Each structure stands twice: as structure tokens, then as C-alpha cells.
Request: fold
Amino acid sequence: MDPFETSIYKRYQSIVESFLGGRPAACAHRAGAEPRRVRMAELLDRYDAFCFDGYGTLYNRGDFVYPGALEWFRALRAAGKQLRLVTNAASNTDDVLAAEADARGFDFVETETVSSGSLLKDFVKRLPDAPRDTYYIGRATGVNVLAECGIAAVENPVSPVVAVSSSTATDEMYAHAVEILRRPGAVLLVLNSDAWAPNIDGTRKPVSGALAERMRLDAGDPATYYFGKPFPAIWDRVRESLPAGARVLMVGDTLGTDVYGAAVAGFDSALVVGRNVPAAALAADEIALGIRPTYYLEP
Reply:
């Protein structure tokens, strides 16, 4: 794991623990025996609900679907399991994200989809002086997420607010964002907290969470708010959508968001190794973050 990536996820852990009154997220897998390597068929009867990360776990860019992912999904659907897409994507609204997953063969519907971007609306409602505009860095469709909250994407916002949902910033955009964030009372909204993400060819790249952290540091640490995994609000939304007492498994490709986030939620977790956590780096990454999944899930 890149040292900068490690520092970001360690910061996330510190923030989460501040929410929990200084207590670490409860997780029986911080140390001890190595997680079991399993296939999905072995887990069918152990859980009532299966939460899936999208990008890097089920699919990647375009119409690329990871080997075995559709077979997992179809077996769980046929077994009548509760299924949720729990994603840090903030590139569009939940109905569109569900439709995009459906086009790849994963027939999630809007009520089964919980995205980081969808949390912005409740956050804005709680603010005494909610922003009406923001300087936005992200995919063009991300303005739909802002619009649902009554926020416009503009070049020079009235209030010094910057929202980041992807790493699509030119040098000029980055410099402008930092200039805004250096103003008194500035706010940085990290709509997608993923720091690194996998490419189809197995390489990895820094994404929105890494870009936002560079901005935060360069701007002198403005007030910063994070949305999605691993933070508690998204797990509250997931829990509200599931039957009471459901046994839940989170399936993902990232230790710092999916696995640690499952620990925050009190869910078991299954890590798909070799996507966002290269097999050769697995042991060192687990030690660096002090976290392990319940299982390693084989394709």
C-alpha cells in the first residue's frame, strides 16, 4: 500500500473512532488466526443479507464484469437473499447507479442501492446555513447528486465550498479548488472517500479520496466532511433497509473502506484479494491498518 494511502485510511479510522467516543470499531478479526479462504457457496446458509461493493468487486470500467461475480449474484438472488449495492460512487443518483449495475447483469433496484452521494441530502438538511452552490470536481453526471440537494455547481461559489466525487481535476481546477478552500470558513465535501482503486489490468491508481486529501493538506486543513464507506452514516442507511436481526456479510475489495467499514457496522466481511489489495501486499496492508476480514473470498 502506498504510504499516502495508508495515512488516508488511518485518518479515516481516527475520525470513525472519534464518532465512537474514542473506542476502536468492534472487530474480532483485528488479530489472531488467518481468515478462512472460502467460496460463495459456503456462505449461503450463514447470512441473510449480502452487501456488495461495486467498482473493483463486481465490475470495473465500461461493461467489464469480474469472473465469478455474476455467478455469486445469481446464486444469492435465486436463494432469496437480501442484496444491497453499497458503493462510494457519487457520480449519479441511486436510481441511475442501480440501472448501470443492471446493465452489467446485476439487477439491483434503487431500494437495494446505497451510495455515498445519496447521503449528501440528509447532511445538507442538518446544516443551519446550507450552501446553495459549490465548486465541483467530478464526472459531469455528478451534478445530478448536487441538484437533488438544491446545490448548483458553479465556478465561484458564494460560500467557499468544494465538493469532490472523482479525481478528474486538471492542474487549473486543483489550484482553483485549493484557493477556495483557503478562504475563511471553507468546507470540503468528499463525496467519494475511496483513496485508491483498481484498474482492469490489476494495477492501482489514486482516486477521489487521495485528491481530496492533497487538497485538504495544501489548503491548510479546512473543515472536511466524508461520505460513504467506512463512515457510520452509510451503514445506518444500510441497516435501516434490511430486516431487523438480519445476518449481514459485506463483500468488497478494499481493506480501508469495505472491511474496516463492515467492522464499524458490526457486519462480517469477505475480501476479494487481488483487486485493490494485491496478494503480495495483503499481509503488510493488514498490519498497517490493523484490520482483517472474516473471510478471503475466492472467485
